[in-house]
Amino acid sequence: MLADDFFLIAWDTTGSGKPRLNGPALALGLAGALIAELVLEHRVLVRGVSLQVTDPRPVREHLADRILADIGNAPQHTDVRTWLAYLARRAVADVTARMARAGLLDRETTRMRRRRPSRYFATDFGRAVWPSTRLRLSLARGRPLSHDDMVLAALLDACGMTDTVVEDPDHRQAARRRLAGMLTALPEPVGDLTRHVRAAVGDAVLTYRS
Amino acid sequence: MRTAHTSTGPDPIVSALAADRLGAPSVVYFVLSAAAPLTVVAGVVTTAYAVTGITGLPVAFLAVGAVLALFAVGYVAMARHMANAGAFYTYVSRGLGRPAGIAAAWVALIAYNALQVGLYGAFGAAATPLVERWAGVTPPWWAVSLVAWALVALLGLMRVDLNGRLLAVLLTAEVAVILLFDAADLVASGPAGLSAAPLSPGGLLAPGVGALVVIATLGFVGFESAVVFSEESRDPRRTVPVATYTSIAVIAGLYALSAWAMTVATGPANIVETARRDGAETIFVIAAAQLGPVVVDIARVLFVTSLFAAMVSFHNTTSRYFFALGRERVLPAAFGRIRPRTGAPQAGSLAQSAVGLLVIVLYAVLGLDPLVHLFFYGGAFGGFGVLLLVFTTSIAVIAFFSREPSGESVGRRLVAPVPAAVALGVMVTLAVGNFSALLGVEEGHPLTWLLPAVYVAAAVVGLAWAFVLRAGQPAVYSRVGLGAKAATVQEEIR
Predict the structure, then answer these.
(1) Which of A9, B31, B344, B440 measures 20 to 30 Å from B79, CA to CA?
(2) Which keywords has UniProt assigned to this entry (chain B) (predicted)?
(3) How far apart are alpha carbons B286 and B9 in whole angstroms?
(4) Cα–Cα dist B388/B155, whole Å
């Protein structure tokens, strides 16, 4: 699932168990990925600033279906930014719970550090590093990307993660160029969605408060 | 599974989002903690008495507060109709066009950098005596400032905005100390008794009033930031205006009272002499007689923490300015990138720190005075820039509403904004005319035209840059004033 892959890149599940991405951007990126899953399944359509359910049939995945029901039950809310903000509130908890159910993730429960964020570790190293490896090979070396991975790359870029994915500074210039070309080629719905994620992440920087 | 909600029930989306939103008191706290009251009372007010030698400052705070409150009527009304209710330049872009907006953005960048860097001077001057007393060594002011600079630079990159709760505690303690000092000053009234002379409107007719206007404006810097929280407030139509007016009222009342109380304690005739002699120590020396050394030492520490909080706050404001302009591509795109792990606007933070380092080193090498030449001149220069921005914005508000009334009442569109703009215009004129009084130098000193000329140059270059953009990069030009939301129109233009 797209949001799972986003999480595996944005969270260091094979080392420290801590996030690689700051809280607001991580939450908004995951929220964007959750909406993108429904867009890619042709359940939800994003156009400009608005979002609506086009096909209410369940996709047979617990979390995606819950979000689809939420959006379907509140047709008065069509603003993409509203849904990003709403889903971002629980996005980390939702996605990690889904991954834990699928056996992808272990949560380290800490009694000493109750108020600190939990640490998450991948159960399968190969599965955990595969999404970032895939994107790195494509962005740095020009291998073709699947449609889903293009959306993933666009969402990561919207959250400012491109330099983290492409670790080698020598490849970043080329990666940015490829990414820019790809972003213009993205179909409207996901293109609009990632632009809203980028704007929301930027706004979070401007209104940051502790 | 969730069930469908009837239209009469509470909207689950709205109530879920409202739980995280801010009420007016929280916004007021954010605004005031950035304004750092003790920094203004112990640093700006006393240095202003010493440098300008004019005693009308208390009434100037009240007068400028009244003008800004009038200005705020149209300002908060226009904020409701802005996609990006951020900094002044976004209002100027919307009201007076994008070239004026870019010019305003560059003026703002210079002004906020000046305000931030000036604080390093005050920090050095205020913290050195404490280091001397507790550690027994006397470091030069710039060494102390450099330590603060390094901390601010680091915190800026780590995006450790000082913890909100800590700031609230510090703010409360600062206000308590200020009120305690005011009470002590008033009880121990000096030779002239409770003289109300510094509060009389006649003080505004004295020569050099333009200097007071700039200093008072400097005290209010930060009142404009409540609108930044529009999208995050519980009820933007109410929360933001209430927070803005409350902040202005609290600032005007607190600073006028404190500036007046100081003159009462020494007698209005002696305040200038006292401030010239004691510098950053003035209010502590005045209060020490009544309050005893423990309270005064607590206040000294709070002054230093207040300065530090203000430095961090202005550092972040400035780096976000760089960031917003980077996102719009008015500055290079690198300024619009974020440090992933911390979410800090990395390039903007580094740029601001570079400016700070350069200025501290320059002042240390030239042997200039940290309090007068760095803190006060930086503050006066930055405060003048903010006054220019407020004035330009006041015109932008009128222009915007004359084109798009947007359903706002005539009171908000014209009745309040027009007199506000006229008053602000008078304030700018007075400030330009009295720049020598502001800096405490003789008429015709090169600084009196050089400093205002910096803003003129920035505005001219900004205008020129706008026309270059319009001709060469129309897509970038169309995004000016959108801030982070510039991202949403990127592809539609291409």
Answers:
(1) B344
(2) Cell membrane, Membrane, Transmembrane, Transmembrane helix
(3) 61
(4) 30
For chain B, which domains are there?
A: 34-480 (1.20.1740.10)
Averaged pLDDT for residues B389-411? 95
DSSP, res B233? B
**Collapsing DSSP states into helix, strand and coil, what is residue B405?**
coil
Flag if A201 and B320 touch (Cβ within 8 Å).
Answer: no
Instruction: Give the model confidence (pLDDT) of B458-475 as tens digits.
Output: 999 999 999 999 999 998
- Give Cβ neighbours of residue A42 (< 8 Å, ≥ 6 apart): A54, A55
The token duo for B57 is 């400052």
For B170-204, letters b (16+ CB in 10 Å) and e give bbebbbebbebbbebbeebbbeeeebebbbeeebe
For B24, the token pair is 């007016």
The rounded distance, in Å, linking the Cα atoms of B440 and B377 is 10
A20 close contact with B: CB closer than 8 A: yes
Of the partner residues A163, A183, A206, the one whose CB lies closest to the CB of residue B228: A206
- Residue numbers in A near B343 (CB within 8 A): 22-25, 160, 204-205, 208
Please give the Cα distance from B34 to B115 (Å, whole number).
12
> How far apart (Å, rounded) are the C-alpha atoms in residues A2 and A41?
11
B365 in reach of chain A (CB within 8 A): no
- Rounded-to-integer distance, Cα B330 and Cα B477, Å: 8
Interface test with B, best of A163, A167, A207 (most B CBs within 10 A): A207
Tell me how far apart the alpha carbons of residues B290 and B188 are, in angstroms, rounded to a whole number: 7
Cβ-proximal residues to B153 (8 Å cutoff; 6+ apart), any chain: B315, B349, B350, B353, B356, B357
Place of tokens 């550690």: B135
Look up the CATH number of domain A2-125+188-206.
1.10.3630.10
Percent of chain A with pLDDT over 90: 79
Q: What is the pLDDT of residues B32-91, one digit of tens each?
A: 887 889 999 999 999 999 999 999 999 999 999 999 999 999 999 999 998 777 789 999
In the predicted model, what is the mean pLDDT of chain B? 90
* Interface contact flag, B487 A202, Cβ < 8 Å: yes
Tell how strand A44-47 and strand A50-53 pair up: antiparallel
Task: Label residue B441 exposed, middle or buried (CB < 10 Å: 0-12, 13-18, 19+).
Answer: middle
Distance set, CA B310 to CA A93, B27, B115, B223, B347 (Å)? 36, 17, 10, 14, 21
- Which of the four pLDDT bands, split at 50, 70 and 90, describes residue B293? confident
Chain A contact for B485, CB < 8 A?
Answer: yes
Q: How far apart are CA B121 and CA B363, in angstroms?
A: 9
Instruction: Report B:229-288 residues touching A (Cβ under 8 A).
Output: 229, 231-232
For every residue of chain A, DSSP letters joined together read -HHHHHHHHHB-TTTTSSBSS-HHHHHHHHHHHHHHHHHHTTSEEEETTEEEES--S--S-HHHHHHHHHHHH-TT--BHHHHHHHHHTTHHHHHHHHHHHTT-EEEE--STTTTSPPEEEES-HHHHHHHHHHHHHHHHH-----HHHHHHHHHHHHTT-HHHHS--HHHHHHHHHHHHHHHHHS-HHHHHHHHHHHHHHHHHHHT---
Chain A contact for B324, CB < 8 A? yes
In whole angstroms, how far apart are CA B420 and each of B68, B69, B250, B417?
A: 7, 9, 20, 5
CA distance B273 to B49: 9
Domain ranges of chain A: 2-125+188-206
* Matching residue, tokens 């423990």: B294
Contacts of A22 in chain B (CB under 8 A): 159, 338, 340-343
Cα nearest neighbour of A20 on chain B: B341
Q: Which residues of A touch B222 (CB under 8 A)?
A: none
